[in-house]
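hey so u asked for the seq, here:
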Amino acid sequence: MQRRRLALLTFFIVILLAALVGLTLLISNVLRPVGATEIEPEAGEGMTLQWIRSVYGLGSAQADLLLDPVSVSVASDGRIFVPQPELNSICVFTNSGAPDTRIVNEEKLLAPNAVESGPDDRLFVADKGRNKIIAFDSSGEFLWESEANLVSDILWAGDRLYAAGFDRIYVFDIDGNRLFEWGSRGYADGEFDFPQGLVLAEDELLVSDGHNARVQAFSVDGEHLWSSNLSPRDSASTDTTATSTFQLAGGMCATPDGKFLVVDPLQFGIVALDDTGAVIGRVGSEGSEDGKFWYPSDIASLGDGRYVVSDTMNNRLQVVDISFGDSDGMTARELGQSISSAWCILPIALLILTTVGVVAWVSGTRRRTAEIEIAEEPSAE
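ran it, structure tokens below
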């Protein structure tokens, strides 16, 4: 009997705790400010974008705000690096977008515009003001610098540092020695016009060829493999009805499952490609509201389906969740919201269940007590 009572009591305590959690979430939702509305996901062609948060700077002071962020990168430890050429500094945020620190080196940096982390927490910085790539160790001490013309993106992969220059790709070793380079300005395969992004996928180096409005793939040694099609600069094309893949190919990154995301500033959105360069999705629209873009320029993966976009003319970063396929599926954020909503409904049901259980338990206890008392009464002789 005692064991049964203890089990019932434990059960009711667990239900009460669950009800308390749900009630807390319910009160939190009720007290949410009127302006704090949820942003509906944007369904594009073959992909869906869900806004998570916008980041405007390290603080509210004017000097701490982001100004035309043109590049963003994510280090191996998850930190977000945002170079600020006009402010001669690099803003650093946590993986969630919370403020971390600011990197300043007035002696070596003039207009930093691209950042990449390397082995042993080294930091490689492209500086368009000095036309150099500069390396620092984990404590911020200067290691080396090497000349490279108008670099817009840098990538550490394997044991090499790749840099996308104005009309070519530079390749350096970890000590800053230039190993080789390839390319020249033009539209032909293997030529470039202000490339904007670099991604290494297995043994292929993908280059977002900015003003040529295409993506090109090369071997790690510079051999041309393929180019995405339908560029507005393709003079050999006779197709007058097709829409070009890009208007301007901006920064790019890879997804965990081997797709590639390329920002198109002039289309105010993101284009998804497969490993052959074929378009498999598009999403994004123009605006200054959360979840909208105004000339975005770069994108980097944060993991778990989350990405950070440098929303340049809105002077901010946006952290978003991107999923592929039918829009009926849930993103991780939507799943969390669904669970939260369910918890908000649970308190009433749990409280009713608990009340019924307690009443039944009390009634049963009283009934058993009465039966025992009757049984213990002396019988009439």
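Helices lie at 2-30, 332-376. DSSP finds two helices and 25 strands in the chain.
lmk if thats what u needed
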